[in-house]
Amino acid sequence: MPASDPATGEGADPTGDYGAPRRLWRTLDRHRPPGVEAVTTGWRSPLRGPWLTSVYGLALLVTLPLVIVTGLLDYAAYSPQFGQAFPFDVGWLRLPHFDWPTRPAWLFQLTQGLHVGLGIVIVPVVLGKLWSVIPKLFDWPPARSVAQVLERLSLLLLVGGILFQIATGLLNIQYAYVFGFDFYTAHYFGAWVFTAALVAHVVLKLPRMVTALRSRPAGAELRTGRAETRPEPPDPDGLVPARPDPPTVSRRGAIALVGGGSLLLAALTVGQSVDGPLRRMAWLLPRGQDPGEGPNGFQINRSAAAAGIRPADTGSGWRLTLRGGGRTTTLDRPGLLAMAQHTARLPIACVEGWSTTQTWTGVRLRDLAALAGVPDPVAAHVESLERNGLFRRATLQANQVLDPDSLLALRVNGADLSLDHGSPARIIVPALPGVHCTKWVASIDFRTDA
């Protein structure tokens, strides 16, 4: 059988019917979109080639699975079995249901911090990887066989997917809700589309990446300066430019530029999860910085005014309603303060990535459950005084109610809770997402069935 010409797509077809595809490729080749030629031939950096592309690819291969896994774990932390994770209905993409653990207490702080932090830190690596392959993204015709069509489709989903996830994620943590669609739904399904495309891309390209990384000793390449930098030999994928320009920077410099950008972003975000001086450097996180002084001088995700809380709702007339065991119990704040008080130092972590650790004092939830007549609840449904918002209610798992550090907090850092921090009382549970640590609690329903 005659060999096929990879440049034109010409050659024998086992069916004997190769004329139509060949004419299609030729027609497409003659009618190139404006600008394609400038991109494919005008980007002539001698740094481009399989080795540099594979270095960036290896960095993403190490970090992207962490971003994906921590994102899925964060979704599980919202207890989707109670219908309170967003999106609610994910069809066959639902995760296996399990009780989110309360130990270690910093679990959600870690997973959400890694998800958001790594998502920011890898941005320069993603841009470096795209720069290294951008002429190939504009190849014309885009494919010359069915196999190439499938490969290009996976590449489109991969590039489009990661840019979509990064762009919407960054806008969300900046509280820039300009989407015109539900962020949580789009981010969840977008993550699955991107993950599928990433798996397909790794399966197709991993052998070539390994070969490329072995083709040039990393140590020698990182010792090579700009003057000694030479283009790589021509490669089957066409990453090396046909007529490269003289180098303006070495590959070592290109890697340092990307790595330095990632380190800078890390320095500007790590303070979101670290109490102390570094928090003042969390310039990329609007809620990550230190908001004030005093016992209540730490972050909030929603103020009392934004939640529609009126002073009369939380004054001397406030009452907590406990339900369970076929009876209703009502307590005022002095009644709660008269109960056994417990103190725990626990983090509170927000979906936007910031977290802080404070010392909370209040009544154990398991003591309230016993008072309500349900010492071994299956779940607890908590409602807030809020009049609007997605998170005005939350359902807690049995292990979250019964953990010895799970509290209906009345005080923080030795002082009464401020109104913005949930006064007269709020929920604090180890490893629980911050939005489910309900503020301005109005009632708790301890349940004996799911």
UniProtKB/TrEMBL annotation:
Residues 1-21, 220-246 are annotated as: Disordered. The chain crosses the membrane at residues 55-78, 114-134, 155-177, 183-204, 253-271. Coiled coil: none annotated. One of its GO terms (cellular component) is membrane. Keywords: Membrane, Transmembrane, Transmembrane helix. Residues 315-448 form the Oxidoreductase molybdopterin-binding domain. This is Oxidoreductase molybdopterin binding domain-containing protein. It comes from Micromonospora avicenniae.
